[in-house]
Specification:
single chain, 295 residues, alpha/beta, four-stranded parallel beta sheet, 6 helices, 11 strands, 31% helix, rod-shaped
């Protein structure tokens, strides 16, 4: 009769989807012993990862026994096939759980670094677009409080584990036109018509012309891990202020599930997929509460 396990007294804890009596028979055939209780003579505790993490009673007892090794089911299975107890080093649960935690942390750190790099690249592109618009005769619109209508919206996409951001801008037309007959009068579509490819970042900007009388335009840009970066027109160049501002607010509501006038409050949209707007820091302009009041 094989006796490769004659010095092994083994205990089990966890769900291994194997009948206890069958496991006991396998061990005894090899000359070993399977015990229910943890005693000072136990040499190995075959443990599931779940029970190890929960530190169940048997795990706590085994940790107090110097010679007892807390190992995975693979140790028992491979040892039975080898007809001798293998070295526990590669099968120790403490080492395996620690390695998994470290790998998970490294993966998260790498993902976070990639997200930050992507966001940085996107925001650099938005700044370049803003500089080009300025050269062409447009600047970011500021209201009477000094608030700049140049915002970034972000959210965490739980399905892809990535951050998503929208950038929204409104701009004005650089040429002098009749104040009462704008190129694009105040006629609103039902909602902003922009493709929505699950973006990482979105930028929303409102531009105003350098020259008077001012006309306006509204743009959104997005960054997506799969679709790259693109810019869309929400209100075309030469639009009236009500049209451009309305598109700005509609797009904001579409993404955040909140009204523009609710942006600086503590109200939660209640949507896990909604984008988040971060108000300016304390002491900086927060913008007019309701821009519609100045139309």
């Amino acid at each position: 009769m094989p006796n490769g396990f004659k010095k092994c007294i083994i205990a089990l804890t966890g769900d291994f989807d194997k009948p206890y009596e069958r496991v006991k028979k396998w061990i005894e055939i090899q000359g070993g012993q399977l015990t229910v209780k943890i005693g000072p003579d136990v040499t190995h505790l075959v443990c599931s990862e779940d029970h190890f993490k929960k530190s169940v009673a048997k795990v706590q007892q085994a940790r107090k026994i110097k010679k007892c090794k807390i190992v995975t089911w693979d140790w028992l299975e491979d040892s039975l096939l080898a007809k001798r107890p293998l070295r526990a080093g590669d099968f120790l649960l403490k080492s395996q759980v620690k390695a998994k935690v470290k790998a998970k942390a490294t993966k998260k750190e790498t993902r976070d670094d990639n997200i930050l790099k992507g966001v940085g690249f996107f925001e650099k592109g938005c700044d370049e677009f803003k500089n080009k618009m300025y050269t062409d005769g447009y600047h970011i619109y500021r209201d009477s409080t000094g608030f700049s209508y140049d915002i970034t919206l972000a959210r965490s996409d739980l399905t892809t584990n990535t951050n998503a951001r929208y950038f929204l801008k409104v701009s004005s037309f650089p040429y002098t036109i009749n104040l009462f007959t704008p190129l694009y009068p105040y006629t609103l579509p039902r909602r902003p018509r922009v493709p929505l490819p699950a973006p990482r970042t979105q930028c929303l900007q409102l531009y105003e012309s350098h020259v008077s009388p001012s006309t306006y335009a509204c743009f959104s840009s997005y960054s997506s891990p799969t679709a790259g970066t693109a810019t869309h027109v929400l209100a075309p160049l030469g639009s009236s202020f009500p049209l451009a501002m309305e598109q700005f607010m509609q797009f904001f509501k579409l993404k955040t599930k909140l009204e523009w006038k609710e942006r600086n409050g503590t109200l939660d949209s209640g949507s896990e997929t909604a984008f988040v707007y971060t108000p300016p820091a304390e002491g900086e302009p927060w913008g007019e509460v309701d821009p519609e009041s100045i139309w």
